[in-house]
Amino acid sequence: MEKILVTTDQSDNSKAAIRYAIKLAEARNAELVVLxxxxxxxxxxxxxxxxxxxxxxxxxxxxxxxxxxxxxxxxGMDEPKINYKLALYDHVxxxxxxxxxxxxxxxxxxxxxxxxxxAVEKLFxxxxxxxxxxxxxPVLCIPSTCHLKDLNHILxxxxxxxxxxxxxxxxxxxxxxxxSVEMMHVSYLYEFVFDKQLMEASLKKQVNYTVSIHxxxxxxxxxxxxxxDAAVKLSRPSLLVLFTHHSRSVFDKLLFDSNAEKYSFYGKxxxxxxxxxxxx
Length: 280
Description:
Elements lengths: L2 E5 L7 H13 L3 E8 L9 H28 L8 E7 L3 H11 L4 E6 L5 H15 L4 E5 L9 E5 L5 H12 L5 E8 L8 H12 L3 E7 L6 H12 L3 E7 L4 H7 L14 E6 L4
Parallel strand pairs: 1-2, 1-4, 2-3, 4-5, 6-7, 6-9, 7-8, 9-10
Antiparallel strand pairs: 5-10
Helix pairs in contact: 3-4
């Protein structure tokens, strides 16, 4: 059975990702795993027995609090209660702990809330940006201000280097949701622009799914983020998809562009990232 992992620190900001994960797990008939990563330091003077007792007390208390927290989220939703389990994982680094748990337990997606504060760095924060760059499991970044809506339209931004393989992953995500898929490429003036109708017909045969094409000319007076922002405003997707490359990703270029801090549209649109490692 497919597993959707959502991580929480039991804060109000994390509720958006939990609500999103509940809806996604229900749509995909998946098991929901609610994860809390913790780490307890052992006082030098404590015996192993004292430390084990303290750890068990902490875990029992945290599970009880986590259970009440999730029930409260459910009570505020008009969604059927699905099977879920609570998990605690001990790791000195929260980001690595989440990625490690997701990989070890063969989770299909990781959901995490982001705190939109206007700047891209503030929006994604250390845990989220760390997961995007390091996790082998796809990461769903859900803005804490995101209102729960039907996931019915996916915008996939591509540099066209490996779009066939990437589309297979996107279609796998979209098909159970019956979501439409739009592939968008921002091209430079010297790049060849493919025929929209021919490309759409070809893609439908290749991935057995309807994919619409959005060609957009690159405006070199803009940051790349501005061009994608314009496409997002036009398309009005319920989810934006990016593939991050091991060496130099589209996301890296957006994140570290000198003008990127001026834009905050990611704070309004959930983002799904796939980490594209060499050989994958």
